[in-house]
Design brief:
It is a single chain. By secondary structure, the protein is an alpha+beta fold. The chain is built from four helices and seven strands. Strands 1, 3, 4, 6 and 7 form a five-stranded mixed beta sheet that branches. β6 and β7 form a beta hairpin. α2 packs across α3.
Length: 162
């Protein structure tokens, strides 16, 4: 009985170490960045590679007859934990819900600071994902407009079709 209690306590402590705390910690002011800009500050820590049924279902909603766009943001705090994932916009409108975004796992939960981020500067990341009818993902450069990126992807698709 005592061994079971010790084992259960150890497992609970271990799982708590791996979870993201509820409250973010910010050692410095947050810097706004795009998808590619976050890599100047933080590198994702990759978790398990298998996708759950919920994840696959949420991602399937992004595949439409044409192109779809999802714009969302989240913060990476000074401990490398992602917080405050928020759906900002979808094209077409109402393509996915906040819950779908959370289930899609497009944003990593844990990060480690890059060598140049020894001050553990927190960031607010705005990501923009474009999904083609074939299911391919495309991410515009941080400084490129979403409209310009859509035009370049459409031109590429037309060129491929010949």
């Amino acid at each position: 009985m005592i061994k079971k209690a010790i084992l259960l306590g150890a497992l609970c402590a271990l799982s708590a170490c791996q979870s993201v705390p509820d409250e973010p910690y910010y050692a410095q002011p947050i810097v706004d960045v795009g998808y590619f800009g976050k890599f100047d500050y933080w590198d994702p820590i990759k978790g398990k590679n298998t996708l759950s049924t919920k994840t696959k279902s949420a991602r399937k909603k992004l595949i439409t007859k044409n192109l779809s766009v999802v714009i969302f943001e989240y913060e990476i705090d000074s401990n490398g934990n992602a917080h405050n994932l928020k759906l900002l916009q979808t094209i077409p409108d109402n393509l996915i819900t906040q819950e779908d975004l959370e289930n899609s796992r497009y944003a990593y939960e844990k990060f480690k600071p890059t060598p140049q981020n020894d001050g553990r500067i927190p960031v607010k990341v705005t990501e923009r994902l474009l999904t083609t009818a074939s299911g391919a993902l495309s991410i515009p450069e941080d400084t490129q407009s979403i409209e310009g990126h859509v035009r370049s992807v459409m031109a590429h698709i037309k060129k491929q079709k010949g």
